[in-house]
Amino acid sequence: MALRISDSEEAGHLGRPDRKLAQPFSGWTHKQMTESIEAFLLESGLDDYADYVRRGAFLAQSKVAFPTDRVRDDGLSLKPVERQYLDLEYSTRRIDKFKQPWRLYALVGCCSLGAAVQGMDETAINGAQVFYPDALGIRGNDGLTGLVNSAPYLCCTLSCWLNYPMNRVLDRRGVIFLTCLISSITCLGQAFPQSWQHLFVARLLLGLGIGPKSATIPIYAAEAAPANIRGALVMMWQMWTAFGIMCGYIAGVVLAGVGDGNNPSICTTDPRNPNYSRARLLSSKCSLNWRLMLASPMILPLVVVAYVYTLPESPRWLLLKARKGNKAKYEEAFLSLCKLRHTKLQAGRDLFLINYLLKGEEDIMQQQRPFTELFTLGRNRRALTASVITMFLQQFCGVNVAAYYSSSILVTKAAFSNRRALLISMGFGIINFFFAFPAVWTIDSFGRRNLLLSTFPFMALFQLLMCIAFRFRAGSTAQTALVIIGMYLFGVAYSPGEGPVPFVYSAESMPLYNRDFGMGIVTSINWFFNFFISITWPKFLSAFTASGAFGWYACWCVIGWWMILLFVPETKDLTLEQLDEVFRIPTREHSAYGLSQLSWFIRRYIFQRKELRKPVLIRKADPEEVYVASRGGYEEIQLEEKPFGGGTGIMMH
């Protein structure tokens, strides 16, 4: 099977300039490196740090640029402390890679708190909706309840597109500061509504704090982190979002018994009643519990607001501004890297490398059409399609039904008491957080695609268990047991797979030169379907019943498994160049590979054909030609046979 690229536009990208960004200085002579270094020093004016930049540049070209057994011809060498920290950086022991400066971990801690803010913003409504519909007079009006609950995600669908202009004006830290401040103010505003319209507006404005923050914080962490632990830090976003989700559930349990608005002995509108002044204080039945639940997420963002400007700005962002004419930013970028790396040598290396990559991106942006190529260029279109599938399924697997509505479902459909429903929901939040930890290791060892393929069948099974549970009599022992088991086991299956994979997969699958455009699209899609699930669930529940509704999401888990099998390639352990090759494989060929995997699995494990070996997708040597458009004609290219987890053929052992 040969790869035939007949689309001249796509074929021309086999030699795309973004390939040079994978190994930028490979094959450069000493003269080329020296000339590039001197040009950079002249451009940046970093004469005071020239020694670190010069030695760091050669280190960026090769890890073994400074051998221990001989002296370089140019006289450059490493200090003992510099070699010590480089040995630590290059160590094969995984734990050594995490021995980083405390300032880097302070930055990671800030980003983690920002992620927790988002998670808590999302689930504060879970417990509050048990109470606020009565207090605001909308109990039984499913449309209004869904509208109020979904308001932030409607805003997020649009506000995440503000990420780029906000970053241009405010920088990374400024966007985080402003969005966290908005989150805190709007959460406080949710404590004082006098009608559902007031609550809707407060929650709608909350989306301004969630959307741009959800796009900026992962980028800020990734740009500050060294390459050898960047993947693990990208994982932190989803993990600490899960922590915030858990905190939202816990707040619901802790605050449920405070000033219940449905208790007439506490809340009254009769001026002669001794409790009247207390009622007037908060109005609308003076219910404190749900108001405090909705206000509880306001504390975490204030910590981030107070903390974020003690951290260094993103070095990459500073260099980007320096390249646009603000020469003083070169020194700021170097000093920022000095705070985030052990030695000035490492800072000089990363500064030189980042600057070169930014120059490469600028060249590519002038030659390519980043936005339109997401849809017209086959490699990019397949990456976008796979990313959209994972983002879409993160919502349509039904997880946010539990996140936003589990307490009200348990109260209205399973006859649980308010407190018991909140406790069960809190248990789901705790499971969602702690079962995300295994993904820190398995996402790079077991693989993104494999995690999804192995967890979606169980998610479907446990959604089906919920479907069966609601066929029993409300409040019966059988229903109670099945509901709890189904909900908790669904969380166990979701947390290490479809929970963390979509954002990691989307961030790495897009080519470097249009990653911002691609991430903007897929993040917006994720928030849109988040909004869609949230607003439609109340009506959906009344129309389909709880059993039918959970059956619907069980079906989507099954459909999602097939979509992943056929259209989502594996991306773990692949370089940028290899990812280009993976996503250039025609969809029909990857689908055929997926079906061969399924066939092998059935014959190997069900029919016990132990002699069969797993199919491997390879770049296949073939006597046929590989057609590549070049200068208006075609030339032959031979591909070596090399299995690497993705390629152009299926090899059966």
TrEMBL record:
Q: Does the keyword Transferase apply?
A: no
Q: Where does the UniProt annotation locate this protein?
A: Membrane
- What topology does it adopt in the membrane? Multi-pass membrane protein
Q: Where, by residue number, does the polypeptide cross the bilayer?
A: 175-193, 199-221, 233-256, 290-311, 383-405, 421-443, 450-472, 478-496, 517-537, 549-568
Cross-referenced SUPFAM superfamilies, in alphabetical order?
A: MFS general substrate transporter
Q: Which domain of life is it from?
A: Eukaryota
User: Is Membrane among this UniProt entry's keywords?
Assistant: yes
The record's Pfam families line, in alphabetical order, gives: Sugar_tr (PF00083)
Q: Which family does it belong to?
A: Belongs to the major facilitator superfamily. Sugar transporter (TC 2.A.1.1) family.
Name recorded for this polypeptide: MFS sugar transporter
